[in-house]
Design a protein that fits this description.
This is VOC family protein. The protein is α/β, with parallel strands linked by helices. It contains 2 helices and 8 strands; from the N terminus they run βαββββαβββ. It has a single domain, classed as 2,3-Dihydroxybiphenyl 1,2-Dioxygenase, domain 1 (Roll), CATH 3.10.180.10. About 20% of the residues are buried.
C-alpha cells in the first residue's frame, strides 16, 4: 500500500542557481547534493534534494533545461500565505499572482522560481497576518 509521496521532481536549467533559490529564497533545507553518475562524474548532473523545514516530501531539482519553465508538478501549502508572498518578494523572488481568497475556500497565489517554473501556493484558512 502506498503511504506517502517521497519526492517530486522539478525540472531546472541550472541546478546551482535553482539550489540557491530553493534554499535562500524559499528557505528549504538542503538534504543531498551528489553527482548522479557517482563520484567520478563531478561535472555531470547532480542529485539535489531539498525540502521545506520539517516536511516529509522532498523536492528533487532535476537537470532538464528543455522541460524547465512550466507549471510545477505540485502546489505548496503555507501556514501564512500573505507573509510567504511578502517573504518571497523580499528575498528577490517573483510572486506572479498575489494571494487572494479562493472561491473554494482558503487562499491561493502563485510564484515563479529561478528557472521560470510557476507554482501554486495555498492556505486552507487565513491566519492573522
Amino acid at each position: 500500500m502506498i503511504t506517502q509521496v517521497d519526492f517530486v521532481s522539478i525540472n531546472v536549467a541550472d541546478q546551482e542557481r535553482a539550489k540557491r533559490f530553493y534554499t535562500e529564497v524559499l528557505g528549504f533545507e538542503l538534504l543531498s547534493d551528489q553527482p548522479m553518475g557517482g563520484p567520478d562524474d563531478a561535472d555531470g548532473p547532480r542529485w539535489i534534494e531539498v525540502c521545506p523545514p520539517g516536511a516529509f516530501t522532498r523536492v528533487v531539482l532535476f537537470a532538464d533545461a528543455d522541460a524547465a519553465g512550466a507549471f510545477g508538478p505540485c502546489v505548496f501549502n503555507t501556514d501564512d500565505i500573505l507573509a510567504t508572498a511578502r517573504d518571497i518578494e523580499a528575498a528577490g523572488g517573483t510572486v506572479v499572482e498575489q494571494p487572494t481568497e479562493a472561491p473554494w475556500g482558503g487562499w491561493w497565489g502563485r510564484f515563479e522560481d529561478s528557472e521560470g517554473n510557476e507554482f501554486g501556493m495555498n492556505q486552507r484558512s487565513l491566519a492573522s497576518s
